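Example 3.2
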Amino acid sequence: MKNYNVNRIEKNILQINGLGDNPFWSKAEILTDFSSPWNDLQSEKMEFRALWDTEYIFFCYTVYDNNVHVDRQDDSVDSIGESDRVEIFLRTDEALDPYYCLEIDPTPRIMDFRASPKKKFDFDWNWPKNDLIVKSKIKEDHFIIEIAITIQSLKNFDLIKNNSIEAGLYRAKYTKQENNLFEPTWISWVNPNTETPNFHTPDSFGNLILV
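Structure, written as tokens:
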């Protein structure tokens, strides 16, 4: 499994604002190791950063894209699912029973759900409101999504074990085709080695190590 070190910072020094400009983000390792195993097209650069303190784990996605697609017909799961977005899946173990999914578009709308094997999704489930903060900003040539999740909620869902969190890091990019329909390119940190795009498999996860 791939590993990413999540560096620790002092409590209460990082407040997310959706801009990714807090100077303490410089203490995070920059992860750019993303690819689309099912598409020969070169995707735009994406950077991922993570930090943690005793209360929160913080994530920051910076996605370089000057043609962001957001389906704005409503705020439904279907609309978010047809939009550019970043995703984080968190699992208790490789059995994926259960695992928890956060899919966030650049506006930011949140599609959060609990899942179990064979793509059984519970959209009635939501991450506890007081344990999740998301902010974002769309700029001329990129967008930023910042996420803060309480450490306590991760513990409640049994997602931290031996200072490690098993996570999948992904992106969906929608591009307009000649028929005027938008089709997705699926981008992942870990190549799951599936014949067709599939993030909902044990082999698409890596380790976030709290150091």
